[in-house]
Design a protein that fits this description.
alpha/beta; six-stranded mixed β-sheet; about 325 residues; 6 strands
Length: about 325
């Protein structure tokens, strides 16, 4: 199973720990990424471009907004473009996959996952993980309580910094800043336990093989190329590239890979769509942000929302 796909699609939860803990620095480590001037976040410049993808949801005579997010980003990506600003201004609630403003949610992310036993790594895998941590300037000590499947995601996040991409500049972080500036409420579409149980295989051997394959992928230079291509496709609102991800990611080679893809993406969409429908039904004016790959493929979140009576219209990029 390809590490890029796993981390950018599923590590929105675990990557938040990277933002909190920071990363070790050494002589050959990538330089720190500088955040935009806070004034630019409080009063975004008129020329800031729109990035990502935005849909309008309509039901019962009221609108909500659905934004395709990405869990790694560049500093300038924190500045919302005019359409995202308008969606923020029209909303009273920011709904994320997880309510990352809730301290109990953050604590749950760093705790053992119910139903997912610990996974001691054999010496060879432990040595490979430690070598990758050194090469990517990552101190894994703060993540010692995380399942190894999630620890590997931290290695990818840190390696992406060499290409100017950081977890602290993912869209969840930028939207939370904007929501606080506007006094919006926060809501979560999933619980930490449900999300992590979907992301981590229940079978020990399956989890071990996932770690092994992820390390192999991370040891290849192709991982950075794939991460960069996926991030740039998001930034350009290139839905076609996102929809054809499996054709170029070199990430689905077996029935197990296909089952994992279904478990971590399509199987989660109905639950998130139901939560969106409930919040909308309570009169919340929603801006929803969910990982971009949830908008693609059979059983997408868009389809799940349409099945619950929403009219879904793409607003950015405008369909040709």
């Amino acid at each position: 199973m390809n590490l890029v796909r796993h981390c950018l699609r599923r590590c929105g939860a675990a990557l938040f720990a990277l933002w909190l803990a920071g990363a070790a620095q050494a002589q050959d480590c990538p330089p720190p990424l500088s955040a935009p001037n806070p004034a630019l976040l409080a009063q975004p410049p008129a020329g800031a471009p729109d990035r990502g993808l935005l849909w309008q949801l309509e039901k019962d005579g009221r609108s909500a907004w659905l934004f395709a997010s990405i869990h790694l980003g560049r500093p300038e990506w924190l500045i919302p473009g005019p359409r995202l600003q308008a969606a923020l201004d029209a909303s009273d609630t920011l709904a994320l996959e997880l309510d990352l403003s809730n301290v109990y949610v953050l604590q749950a992310l760093m705790s053992p996952v119910p139903g997912r036993p610990s996974l001691p790594l054999p010496p060879d895998l432990k040595a490979r993980m430690q070598a990758l941590a050194r090469s990517s300037c990552t101190d894994l000590t703060p993540y010692a309580t995380l399942h190894p499947v999630l620890q590997v995601g931290q290695l990818l996040a840190q390696s992406a910094r060499r290409d100017g991409l950081g977890a602290e500049f993912g869209q969840e972080m930028g939207l939370m800043i904007q929501a606080r500036l506007r006094g919006l409420e926060f809501a979560g579409l999933e619980t930490p336990t449900l999300q992590l149980q979907a992301l981590i295989p229940a079978d020990r051997q399956e989890a071990l093989e996932e770690v092994r394959e992820s390390l192999r992928q991370l040891e290849s230079p192709e991982v950075r190329l794939q991460t960069r291509r996926l991030a740039e496709a998001w930034a350009q609102g290139d839905l076609r590239t996102l929809e054809t991800y499996e054709q170029w990611c070199d990430c689905v080679h077996s029935a197990a890979d296909r089952a994992a893809l279904k478990r971590t993406i399509a199987d989660r969409n109905p639950g998130m769509a139901e939560r969106i429908a409930r919040l909308h039904g309570k009169g919340r004016r929603l801006l929803v942000a969910v990982g971009a790959l949830h908008m693609t493929g059979e059983g997408s979140l868009l389809e799940a929302l349409q099945a619950r009576g929403f009219r879904v219209t793409q607003r950015w990029p405008e369909p040709r």
